[in-house]
Automatic annotation (TrEMBL):
Name under which the protein is recorded: Cobalamin biosynthesis protein CobD
PANTHER family: COBALAMIN BIOSYNTHESIS PROTEIN CBIB
A GO CC term assigned to this protein in UniProt: plasma membrane
Pfam families membership: CobD_Cbib
Record's subcellular location: Cell membrane
Reported function: Converts cobyric acid to cobinamide by the addition of aminopropanol on the F carboxylic group.
Database matches in InterPro entries: Cobalamin_biosynth_CobD/CbiB
Similarity annotation: Belongs to the CobD/CbiB family.
Positions of transmembrane segments: 62-83, 89-108, 303-327
Name of the encoding gene: cobD
Source organism, top-level taxon: Bacteria
Organism ancestry: Bacteria, Pseudomonadati, Pseudomonadota, Alphaproteobacteria, Hyphomicrobiales
Amino acid sequence: MALSDSLLTLSLALAAEAAVGYPNRLYTAIGHPVTWIGRLIKGLDRSLNRESWPFRQRRIAGVLALLVLLTVTGLMAWTLGALLRPLDLMGLLLLAILASSLIAQRSLHEHVAAVSKGLRESGIKGGRAAVSMIVGRNPQSLDEAGVSRAAIESLAENFSDGIVAPAFWLGLGGLPGAALYKAANTADSMIGHRTPRHEAFGWAAARFDDLVNLPASRLSALLIIMAAALHREASPQDAWRAVRRDASHHRSPNAGWPEAAMAGALGLRLAGPRVYGDVRVEDRWMGDGRAEAKADDIDRALALYRTACALLFCLAAGLALLAWFIAH
């Protein structure tokens, strides 16, 4: 697929997903690409991750599992693209619809907005119930400020790996690029953990996910800073300052970039010490504002997020137009 076609596919996919998301009826009927990828990962985990094997052998098995996952996913996506490409405009539209399922603008907004709604309508109990759907930390350990910060942190981090990253690889590599990214990201979320079962087997998935998210995390921070410049109550200068000072101190090589940008833009402190299950994680703070976030701050973050998504679409459409002019 030519770069101009993949960028046009990206523009159409972003617009389609923002408009309708992934319909619940479709999910009920056939599932979702992520659930299909997840089944393959579970199968590979069951068959190749043997607890009786030594650490080095399990790490090699994890590398093999990742290669199998990427090969199967890439071949299926490439085949779909090859079948649809001869259909010209209709094929392009169908490709865009397929690709839109790999982007999560609408669902992320809905899940984070539900936390704000839960806090407003049902207090801390409602906020904890809603935030438990999007974060892995123990919701019972969170007060209202903790719930609000968790929702904003999830919004910032998932803006990068749920929207900007698949969009980046879709624009660069068409449907196969986005599908391969989604496979790698799903593998990281399922097996890329430092647990007795997955510390060795999930090592390759975790490291590869860090690598493929590098460009998107930086672009996400830039989009948030640009969005802050368009909002009167946000500060692009503080967002830029927080990214330069704090992003590299996050335990993730990528999550700190959008989180620091969001924290600085909103005048908040994000990340910091928090509890996952029964384990307390002593992370550095992102931003130097107030830690006492509330539902209003979630709404402010969502407003920045919507603007950043619009800027991403404008960037994709502008690059598609430029690539078309160059090609013709």
